[in-house]
């Protein structure tokens, strides 16, 4: 049982996301590089291993609200949020990585505050009829990310602080948290330094 933040790898089968289904049906290999979750929509930055063709863009557009080609093999796709995305948006977990394994089967790497949060997250998915399997969990040393830092990073991410066009300013975020702007700036600086160190250590 984890009482501090840890990483979990889960497999979601029969995934309800139409974009993922289309990606699988194209026969192209792709990873979701980034996800922005919202109340009713989800933005996906999809990175294909090879150059994506015009006909594949058309297929994506047929089941999406918005599709924008960023370069030869990277596409921004906005869709209505599926059941999995809605659970993710309202949970305590943070999505680190998503990989399309095969049609309607996705591999998620998640940053989770504690074991209770993971159990609650899995229970919510199961209640939506989503088939999910936990493949692996690995501990992150407690000195790498405190619960407070996790809480603030998660909120900042969900409110769009890290977006290219920020959904919330540092001052507005500080007001929501009930702390001063300089204090929030310092917390974010220390937290992001730890997250970057964790990532660099992980990839070697």
From TrEMBL:
Domain HTH bat-type residue range list: 145-197
InterPro entries for this protein: HTH_bacterioopsin (IPR007050), RNA_pol_sigma_r3/r4-like (IPR013324), WH-like_DNA-bd_sf (IPR036388)
Alphabetized Pfam families for the sequence: HTH_10
Protein name: Helix-turn-helix domain-containing protein
């Amino acid at each position: 049982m984890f009482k501090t933040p840890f990483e979990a790898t889960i497999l979601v089968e029969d995934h309800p996301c139409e974009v993922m289904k289309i990606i699988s049906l194209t026969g192209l290999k792709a990873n979701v590089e980034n996800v922005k979750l919202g109340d009713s929509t989800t933005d996906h930055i999809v990175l294909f291993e090879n150059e994506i063709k015009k006909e594949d863009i058309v297929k994506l557009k047929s089941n999406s609200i918005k599709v924008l080609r960023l370069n030869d093999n990277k596409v921004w796709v906005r869709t209505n949020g599926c059941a999995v995305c809605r659970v993710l948006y309202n949970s305590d977990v943070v999505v680190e990585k998503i990989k399309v394994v095969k049609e309607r089967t996705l591999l998620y790497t998640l940053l989770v505050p504690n074991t209770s949060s993971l159990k609650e997250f899995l229970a919510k998915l199961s209640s939506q009829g989503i088939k999910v399997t936990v493949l692996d969990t690995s501990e992150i040393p407690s000195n790498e990310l405190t619960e407070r830092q996790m809480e603030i990073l998660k909120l900042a991410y969900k409110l769009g602080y890290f977006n290219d066009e920020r959904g919330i300013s540092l001052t507005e975020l500080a007001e929501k948290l009930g702390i001063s702007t300089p204090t929030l700036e310092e917390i974010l600086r220390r937290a992001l330094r730890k997250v970057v160190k964790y990532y660099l250590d992980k990839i070697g």
